[in-house]
Amino acid sequence: MKNKVGFFQKDSTRSVISSLIAIAIGLLVGFIIMLISQPDNALQGISILLTGGFRDGMSSLGNVLYLAVPVMMTGLSVAFAYKMGEFNIGVPGQYVVGAFVGLYVGIKWTFLPNSIAWLVAILLGGIAGAIWAFVPGILKAKCNVNVVISGIMMNYVGLLLVIQGVKSWLYESTGAQSQVISGARAIPNAGLDVIFPDSSANFGFIIACLLCVLAWVIMNKTTFGYELKATGFNKDAAKYAGMNETKNIILALVLAGFFAGCGGAIAYLGGTGKALQISEVLPAEGFNGIPVALLGLSNPIGCIFASLFIAYVNVGGSFVQNIFPIEIVDIITGVIVYFASFTLFIKLMFARRDAKREAKREAEELKARGGEQS
Amino acid sequence: MSLVYFLFAQTLLFAIPLMIVALGGMFSERSGVVNLALEGIMIIGGFSGIFFMHYMQQNDIMHGMPLLFCALLVSAIAGLLFSLLHAFAAINLRADQTISGTALNLMAPAIGIFIAKAVQDGVQNISFTNEFRITKVPVLGDIPVLGDLLFKNCYVTTFLAIGILLLSGYFLLKTKTGLHIRACGENPQAADAAGISVYKTRYLGVILSGVLGGMGGLIYIIPISTEFTCSVDGYGFLALAVLIFGNYSPWRIAFAAFFFGFTKTLAYTYNSVPFLAAMKLSDTVYKLIPYIATLILLSFTSKNSAAPKADGIPYDKSQR
Questions:
Q1: CATH fold for domain B2-319
Q2: Number of compact structural domains in chain A
Q3: A contacts of B83 (beta carbons < 8 Å)
Q4: Which of A9, A220, A247, B85 has a CA-to-CA distance to A162 between 20 and 30 Å?
Q5: For A127-184, how does the pLDDT look when each residue is reduced to its tens digit (9 = 90+)?
Q6: Pairing state of beta strands B227-228 and B126-127?
Q7: pLDDT tens digits for A240-299?
Q8: A91 is in which domain, residue-wise?
Q9: How do residues B173-215 score in pLDDT, each as one tens digit?
């Protein structure tokens, strides 16, 4: 057991290093692009980008926390399904449905006292997201429908229904968008507004982190988590070992959808005046969960750090805007993900080798045990 | 009858770009490389083509058909170059193809907007003039029914797309190279043993998806707008759906694209169809039809999915 722990530690360092290399290359490419487009301002641009998260002290840092929450949750959602070997591209749909249900419950269910309304709203938003992810799950398990396609379809179905829902029940005609949550019924600040003055940081950040920890526990400390990862590694072997693939696929996607739905609800219940739009565009926070999950190496705790990084660069990008287009941030993120795809392969090679060795060891152990029993 | 012509013309506007891009994706996936980057490739293709068009029209260098074909060429080349990024990661470095495809999708709109803003002093949208609509094709336009259906108020890209469909079908199913592509998607080890270069063949597959994806981006934009915002409204993802719905086969892809195009047309034109307008349903219901219908149809047809066996699995020579 002792050397097993040591090995995992080594693996995690390896993961972090590979992600850091990808980040460094991404920033380098960003710098080169800045150099090409405006040679004189490039140095200033990259330094603002890198220090932007601290620019206005605690206030900027608080906004980093605030911006990190939605992508942390959508990233967690993608990561959770990815461990199972499924690509949850339906995350924008789950996010937007969760956001709508959360907002609806927060605003309209006035019979709930202010103290718990936000909590109920987040939970119901999560359940809505879970239902949205259940459809691709059951279609995959029962009818072998490709999860990527059903996810894309469910994105549009969710988006269109939410637009209709906003128009019917939550419409605010002056802004041509949905109503927003009032300060009294929003997620409490829980003292974060004192630590980070003039920022949008709220208790939602803590909830998101707790959900990441919960996901980590499910993934690493439960039988279901073990089966999930085993299925992700080798579907056939897991099936042969008696694991119920159908159940696991559905459950993994439902949980992933729950996280995304919670993320949507938390993002819109922050009391910052964030409103649902009625244009037919999928929310960017949904798709931005994908780079977070990849950068966080599909690890729930990794998602916390990856989302903080993405949010940090985005806050930096907002300061760099008057010199360079803010899209520079997206280019850098894209390059980082591109290079992260290589390093993941290298890690996979190691993992495969280790898995083989592990399997061999376990087989021998089993053999020895079987000998004892007979 | 004029209603039928109108619906048909609208359907073509949706279906043609979907079909071209899905056919591109087909080559990539049949050779064994999952191409999630279709959306990004479309954006880059559309961006380059429109940008070229904008420049040529502004400076009065080129107009009409020659401009359209040159712009298509520019789009195709841009899509090709962009898809090489995916090919390199997926084939040479054996990267996770979902991730590198996603990376390309993240980069594409950002690159487009960044360049547009840098060149146009902060203006994101690139404007262009649509001067490519053909009111009536001489002679052919006079054929009863068919003339009204296909040769009036049409775009030359429609005929180009039909040509591409026929060529793609012939190329994939009847030629030696097409056979190589299919072999690399089904059993690359055996293909390699038979003397086919799996790497080269897969490169060909991805490059074809880049060329067709890039052209598809431009073809999608021209009829529906007068400026490009570096977005193709998720059509790359829809093309992916059409590809899988079409079971990776050229003829069925064409059918799937038309089915999707038609249901989408109904969502935007139901007011002009008397009996649909009479039902007084909310427009959301009609907008939902293409997606829900696709889901239902997929759940019936996916059991016999003909996805290439080695799709998405990087080729590792040592595993032969």
A1: ABC transporter involved in vitamin B12 uptake, BtuC (1.10.3470)
A2: 1
A3: none
A4: A247
A5: 999 999 999 999 988 888 888 889 988 999 999 999 999 888 888 877 778 888 877 7
A6: antiparallel
A7: 888 888 888 899 999 999 999 999 999 999 877 788 888 888 888 888 888 899 888 888
A8: 68-321
A9: 999 999 999 999 988 988 998 989 999 999 999 999 999 999 9
Please give the model's pTM, rounded to 2 decimal places.
0.86
Q: In this structure, is residue A331 part of a structural domain?
A: no
ipTM of model:
0.85
- Extract the tokens encoding A270: 């922050």
Confirm whether A7 is domain-assigned.
no
Asked if A160's CB is within 8 angstroms of B102's CB, the reply is no
The CATH number for A179's domain is 1.10.3470
Q: How many CB pairs under 8 A join A and B?
A: 141
Please judge whether A146 and B244 are an interchain contact, meaning their C-beta atoms are less than 8 angstroms apart: yes
Rounded CA gap, A68 and A306, in Å? 9
Q: Parse chain B into domains and list their residue ranges.
A: 2-319
Residue keyed to tokens 């605010």: A172
A328–B288 C-beta distance less than 8 A = no
Is A161 part of the contact surface with chain B (CB cutoff 8 Å)?
Answer: yes
**A2 band by pLDDT with thresholds 50, 70 and 90:** very low
Alpha helices in A189-244 (DSSP H): 192-195, 204-221, 223-233, 235-240
Q: How far apart are CA A4 and CA A27, in angstroms?
A: 35
Tens digit of each residue's pLDDT (9 = 90 or more) over B54-83: 999 888 888 888 899 999 999 999 999 999
Q: Does A230 touch chain B (CB under 8 A)?
A: no
Residue among A282, A333, A342 minimizing CB distance to B93: A342
d(CA B260, CA B257): 5
d(CA B165, CA B150): 16
B209/B204 Cα distance (integer angstroms): 9
What was the pLDDT predicted at A347? 65
